[in-house]
Amino acid sequence: MEQYAIKGGNPLVGDVEIGGAKNAALPILAASTMTDETVYIENMPDVRDINVLLQAMQGIGVMVKRTGRHGAVLNAGNINSLVVEDEGIKKIRASYYLLGAFLGKYKHAEVTLPGGCDIGFRAIDQHIKGFRALGARVVIEHGLIKADAQRLVGSHIYMDVVSVGATINVMMAATMAEGMTIIENAAKEPHVVDLANFLSSMGANIKGAGTDVIRIRGVQKLHGTEYTIIPDQIEAGTFMFAGAVTKGDVTVKNVIPKHLESITAKLLEIGCQVEEADDCIRVVATRTLEHTHVKTLPYPGFPTDMQPQITVALALSKGTSIVTESVFENRFKYVDELTRMGASIKVEGNTAIITGVEKYTGASISAPDLRAGAALVLAALTAEGYSTVDDVRYIQRGYEDFHLKLQALGAQIELVETEKDYQKFKLKTG
Ligand code: UD1
To answer: How far apart are CA 16 and CA 304, in angstroms?
Structure first.
């Protein structure tokens, strides 16, 4: 079984190139099925979730041709099924984006109920409410969500919670509904805007993406396009925190600094130096980090997908910090693992009370989910001695070449498969 072997202690120093945003690429790939014409995508991250979605799309007749590692040419003109129940796709939550895309174009879709990271109950009521408001009949049967409509008609929809997934799904369906749809209390994440830009480049009429009111005037047909996906905000944030916790000097390149403002603000608060340029950010940490409080919120608030990474940093800071998770209900599962490395954290409901310690010590730990897995790797990189991180498949869902990018910054990390490999790593780094 693959695991990361890590020897902590090296400050990370250097530049790291950030890839395309997974959470933008997933809905964009799904939306590329809304035209019979050819779509060219660039800056697609080579990560497991993307590859699983592409495979499922190929399974129903979408032509997918990879152009290099980060590009693809797609043509959905010969789709042969609107039923997606691929085994692999159950594991990725974004499979449900095919619902909005198919419902919009074909007025019919059947997609297996989504999986994804186990970070709490993940409702889909707002997706269903939005589809129904557009006139679709939606049922859940035999593990599939089925949606169909004679015609989709624009509607005024007020989302009860700010949901990235529901905003994206309803936006896709509404793009090919008759008349005007208004989504209120919409999610404002950069990937919502990226999908809106992608759909607009295919001929959709969408206004207000990035604000909490999105207006979509339905069109009858979408056409082919060429599109470059935005950089990954969370991958960038993870490497910025890698610089901070290892007392390093890391520059994340090919980023949109505006998307990283809430992360930058917290790094400044905890005593890091942060320098911004047009498309890169440098994070320098030279002394023990300061404590602070943080509450996760929808964009432009501090992202829930960065919560484990900031917790890893705060657990090494001077004083007491409070982290409140307000987006997902069960996102502190990794704290037990961090405690095994010496952290002092008490979790009460959706709050973690953190008393900073001087250092972590290496341990054998497991990645409980994608972002927490990456955060535990950061902890191991700063820990005294050796660690192993199991279940790296979670991390590979969303980070391309994670250990190679860390290695290039000076980290002592390797992907090993056997105990013998691990011992070799220890000999080499001992
Ligand atoms: C997306 C991201 C995920 C990120 C999250 C929040 C993708 C593939 N995943 O997940 O990485 O952590 O946004 O930024 O882009 N909710 C409902 N009803 C619904 C839908 C959601 O109550 O119909 C609740 C959820 O339980 C959760 C909150 O709304 O408490 C936010 O969820 P949502 O924004 O939908 O997250 P995802 O789109 O699943």
So the answer is: 23
